[in-house]
Amino acid sequence: MTTEELKEALPIFTDTALLEQLIEKGQILELQAGKVLMEPGQFVKMVPIVLEGSIKISRMDDEGRELFLYFLDAGETCALSLTCCSASKPSEIKAVVEEDVTLIAIPITAIEQFSNDFKQWKDFVSNTYQNRFQEMLVALDAVAFKRMDERLMGYIVTKMKQLKTNELHTTHQEIANELTTSREVVSRLLKQLEKKKWIELGRNVIYIRDDFEELISK
């Protein structure tokens, strides 16, 4: 990949020297949906910057239940990975490729150098921490203050926007895992939405009306 190609993929970086270092030190990876990039307990060896596609970041409890935190989209990186790098601590999150992704993997040995040498990198890291902190507050608020039906509808809207589709190919159990609830609760709430004709349920697929977000906001 050339500096011009990387600049086009990451318009947040205009410093040619930084772009050159990203190419020199980083590794371009193309990964398919479902690929697990990081598990809790693993030590972080690289920090991913997404060029195309998306990665889902989740928190796991001791029983294997999953709490969705945020997505990494094009031009974004993972604040929690950066934190683990700087503190030399094992990962506390699970990272899974949500849709086929192209990323540039930056080794942890280069992170400190970039912070010392490039203001744009320092600003990028600072903005990443701020944005992810806000997103995790939203996730915490949803668990603490919102009813499960509200959380489910919010989840559906988030997935629609993330995947840019009105068809969600997933199981009720997978949704339950991400919302830290039971499959039975998810199935019951989805049936209620189907009765309203806001969605249609198929085998491991949910068909969603174009005006779903508008309907739930009324």
Characteristics of this structure?
alpha+beta, three-stranded antiparallel sheet, 2 domains, 9 helices, 8 strands, single chain, 218 residues, Arc Repressor Mutant, subunit A, Jelly Rolls, five-stranded antiparallel sheet
CATH homologous superfamily caption of the largest domain: Jelly Rolls
How far the N terminus sits from the C terminus, by CA atoms, comes to 47 Å
Second rung of CATH, namely the architecture of the largest domain: Sandwich
Largest sheet: 5 strands, antiparallel
Q: What is the CATH first-level class name of the largest domain? A: Mainly Beta
Kindly give the count of domains: 2
Tally of extended strands? 8
CATH topology of the largest domain: Jelly Rolls
What would you call the shape?
elongated
Given the structure, what is the number of helices?
Answer: 9
Mean pLDDT across the residues is: 88
In helices, the fraction of residues equals 40-55%
Strand content: 25-35%
The ordered string of helix (H) and strand (E) elements is HHEEEEHEHHHEHHEEH
Low-confidence stretches: none
Could you tell me the radius of gyration in angstroms? Answer: 19 Å
- Structural class by helix and strand composition: alpha+beta
Protein name: CRP/FNR family transcriptional regulator, anaerobic regulatory protein
InterPro entries: cNMP-bd_dom, cNMP-bd_dom_sf, Env_Response_Regulators, HTH_CRP, RmlC-like_jellyroll, WH-like_DNA-bd_sf, WH_DNA-bd_sf
Keywords: DNA-binding, Transcription, Transcription regulation
GO molecular function: DNA binding; DNA-binding transcription factor activity
